[in-house]
C-alpha cells in the first residue's frame, strides 16, 4: 500500500466517526468560556490538551476556582488511558524515528486508537501504517479545533445568566453510561461517583480526584474478585 493509499484509507475509516466529535467539541468550547477563560486560553486548551473529557473536567474545575495543581492532576488521571493505548500501538510503530512518533503521539485519541489498532491487528503486514494513522487522526484534530472554536464563539455570545455549564456533567454521564457493560465497571462508576459527591467539599476541590482514584481502586478490586470467583 502506497503512502497516499494508506492516508486515504485512514480518511475513509475515520469519516463516519469524525462527525460525532462536533457537538462534543462545541460543548468543550462553551465550557471553557463558562469557566471564565478568554478566547486565547480557551483555544489554547484545545491545542495543547486535545482531549475532550479532560478538557471538560479542567474547565469545570477552573470555573469552581480549583487549585491549579488539582486541575492538572485531574486531567492526568483522566488521560492515563492514553498510556495503555500508546503501549498497544508501540510495536506497530517501532520502525519509526522520533520525528514521526512525537506528532503521532500528540494526535492520539480514543477514536484514532480504535480505528487503527483494529486495522493493524487484521492486517499485520500492512505497509505505511503511520500514514494510515495520520489519515485517521489528523481530520479528527481539525474537526475538534473547528468545533471548539465554534463553541468558544457561541460561549462568548451567551449571557452569563444562562449558566450553560450545567451541561458538562450531563456530557460526562452520556460518555460514561455506554461504557458500563460489566460488574467491575459498574462498581467503579458507583464508587467513583459516590465518593466524588461525598468529597465535594474537600479543600482545593480535590473531590473529583478522590472520586476518580476511588473508582479505579474499586474497579480493580471488583475485577480481581470476579476473576477469583
Question: What would you note in describing this structure?
Answer:
This protein is mainly alpha-helical and 229 residues long. The chain has two domains: 162 residues, no CATH class; 50 residues. The radius of gyration is 19 Å and the shape is globular. The mean pLDDT is 85.
Topology:
Layout: H1 3-18, H2 21-34, H3 39-48, H4 52-63, H5 68-78, H6 81-89, H7 98-106, H8 110-122, H9 129-157, H10 167-176, H11 183-198, H12 207-228
Helix pairs in contact: 1-8, 1-9, 2-3, 2-4, 2-9, 3-9, 4-5, 5-12, 8-9, 11-12
Number of strands: 0
**Poorly predicted sequence stretches spanning 5 or more consecutive residues:** none
What portion of residues belong to β-strands? Answer: under 5%
Question: What's the domain count?
Answer: 2
Compute the number of helices: 12
- Give the radius of gyration: 19 Å
The main pleated sheet reads as: none
Q: Kindly state the mean pLDDT as a whole number?
A: 85
Shape descriptor reads globular
Features of this protein?
globular; 2 domains; 229 residues
Brief summary:
This protein is mainly α. Helices cover 75% and strands 0% of the residues. The longest helix is centred in the middle third of the chain and has 29 residues.
Amino acid at each position: 500500500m502506497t503512502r497516499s493509499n494508506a492516508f486515504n484509507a485512514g480518511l475513509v475509516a475515520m469519516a463516519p466517526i469524525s462527525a460525532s466529535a462536533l457537538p462534543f467539541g462545541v460543548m468543550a468550547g462553551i465550557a471553557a468560556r463558562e469557566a471564565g477563560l478568554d478566547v486565547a486560553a480557551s483555544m489554547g486548551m484545545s491545542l495543547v490538551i486535545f482531549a475532550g473529557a479532560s478538557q471538560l473536567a479542567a474547565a469545570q474545575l477552573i470555573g469552581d476556582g480549583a487549585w491549579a495543581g488539582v486541575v492538572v492532576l485531574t486531567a492526568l488521571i483522566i488521560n492515563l488511558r492514553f498510556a495503555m493505548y500508546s503501549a498497544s500501538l508501540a510495536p506497530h510503530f517501532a520502525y519509526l524515528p522520533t520525528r514521526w512518533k512525537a506528532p503521532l503521539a500528540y494526535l492520539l485519541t480514543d477514536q484514532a486508537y480504535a480505528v487503527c489498532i483494529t486495522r493493524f491487528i487484521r492486517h499485520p503486514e500492512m505497509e505505511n501504517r503511520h500514514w494510515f494513522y495520520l489519515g485517521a487522526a489528523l481530520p479528527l484534530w481539525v474537526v475538534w479545533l473547528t468545533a471548539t472554536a465554534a463553541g468558544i464563539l457561541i460561549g462568548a455570545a451567551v449571557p452569563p445568566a444562562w449558566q450553560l455549564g450545567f451541561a458538562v456533567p450531563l456530557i460526562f454521564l452520556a460518555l460514561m453510561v455506554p461504557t458500563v457493560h460489566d460488574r467491575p465497571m459498574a462498581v467503579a462508576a458507583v464508587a467513583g461517583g459516590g465518593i466524588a459527591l461525598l468529597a465535594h467539599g474537600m479543600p482545593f476541590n480535590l473531590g473529583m480526584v478522590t472520586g476518580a482514584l476511588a473508582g479505579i481502586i474499586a474497579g480493580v478490586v471488583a475485577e480481581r474478585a470476579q476473576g477469583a470467583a
